[in-house]
Q: What sequence folds into this?
């Protein structure tokens, strides 16, 4: 671990000012950042602790506006909140499937969105990796780590996606663009909560010295085909202050299905979130999001459209599940993910009846 300075922000304005320092990095729960620092994959010059900034941990429900989740709200606090349980059950389910109670007591909802990939080739600096290909001290915009080291320094000029030269069994089915190892990244986003938030059509609230902006979850993550070194659209001077989700449709129900190797403390092989509303047995609202298949939550809009205006039957759920995986581009070792993802989508749809 590199040597670093530490500063505690007392206010949001204080945090924004401290963030302007060269090599500054925000920390709150530290559930992802601290292990990366320990493995020399993150090398901040100064850690800016925002964990005690007042107001950023609030969870607010307004019957007219929807749900506000402060960026510093702990995952367990979100999961157990009565409003989340009553109106946004898909999010409560997704968080309950994440990590362990101990980690959920520490990790924040904002930091959960900013997790770095669990790709073993990224996490092991002995391998070349496009996400670690920026020169030491550079700022990959939108990354929770700044700067990221380029492995052992030998791969700065000719970095590749080592997964494409090795085992791709846990990697993406969508959105990675060309499969040339020098041009793309095939890692998937590890968060469970982000898939539920996508099905809820939530937005991320960002604050900078210039003001505030809101970015829909669908536009928040940067596709590796556009820039494999960036994870999100967050600018270097921005902080996530919260996540907002609209009111759920009348009679909407949500379900989250996670398929993994073991029942606890394991990341998804594939997962599916569904939010479905019906009126007189006919689907009036359908939002789906898949996890473990892309750089962020994957919204299969054709599958959603196929559900609308139809009585929700097992056959219809199966057809929608088939549509959800249309266009998948399996890598050499991960074609097995397609039927698994179809099964997860079908179960999530039927579980939302």
A:
């Amino acid at each position: 671990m590199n040597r670093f300075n530490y500063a505690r922000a007392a206010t949001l304005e204080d945090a924004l000012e401290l963030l302007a320092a060269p090599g500054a990095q925000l920390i709150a729960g530290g559930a992802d950042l601290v292990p990366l620092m320990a493995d020399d994959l993150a090398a901040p010059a100064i850690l800016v602790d925002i964990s005690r900034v007042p107001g950023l941990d609030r969870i607010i429900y307004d019957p007219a506006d929807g749900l506000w989740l402060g960026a510093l709200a702990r995952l367990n606090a979100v999961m157990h909140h009565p409003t989340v349980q009553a109106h946004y059950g898909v999010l409560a389910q997704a968080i309950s499937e994440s990590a362990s109670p101990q980690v959920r007591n520490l990790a924040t909802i904002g930091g959960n969105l900013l997790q770095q990939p669990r790709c073993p080739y990224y996490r092991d600096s002995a391998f070349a990796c496009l996400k670690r290909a920026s020169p030491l001290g550079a700022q990959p915009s939108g990354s929770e780590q700044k700067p990221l080291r380029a492995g052992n320094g030998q791969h700065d000029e000719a970095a590749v996606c080592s997964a494409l030269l090795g085992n791709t069994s846990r990697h993406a089915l969508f959105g990675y663009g060309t499969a040339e190892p020098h041009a793309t990244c095939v890692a998937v986003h590890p968060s469970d909560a982000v898939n539920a938030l996508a099905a809820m059509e939530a937005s991320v609230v960002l604050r900078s010295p210039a003001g505030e902006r809101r970015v829909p979850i669908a536009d928040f993550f940067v596709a590796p085909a556009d820039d494999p070194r960036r994870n999100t659209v967050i600018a270097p001077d921005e902080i996530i202050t919260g996540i907002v989700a609209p009111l759920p449709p009348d009679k909407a129900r949500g379900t989250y299905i996670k398929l993994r190797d073991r029942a606890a403390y394991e990341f998804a092989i594939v997962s599916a979130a569904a939010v479905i509303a019906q009126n007189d047995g006919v689907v009036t609202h359908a939002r789906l999001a898949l996890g473990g298949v892309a750089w962020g939550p994957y919204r299969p809009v054709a599958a959603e459209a196929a559900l609308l205006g139809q009585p929700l039957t097992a056959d219809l759920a199966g057809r929608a599940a088939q549509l959800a995986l249309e266009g998948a581009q399996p890598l050499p070792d991960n074609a097995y993910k397609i039927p698994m993802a179809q099964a997860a989508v079908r179960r999530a749809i039927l579980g939302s009846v």
Observations:
- The domain at 253-351 is CATH 3.30.390.50 (Enolase-like; domain 1).
- The chain has 13 helices and eleven strands.
- Residues 337-351 form the longest helix (15 residues).
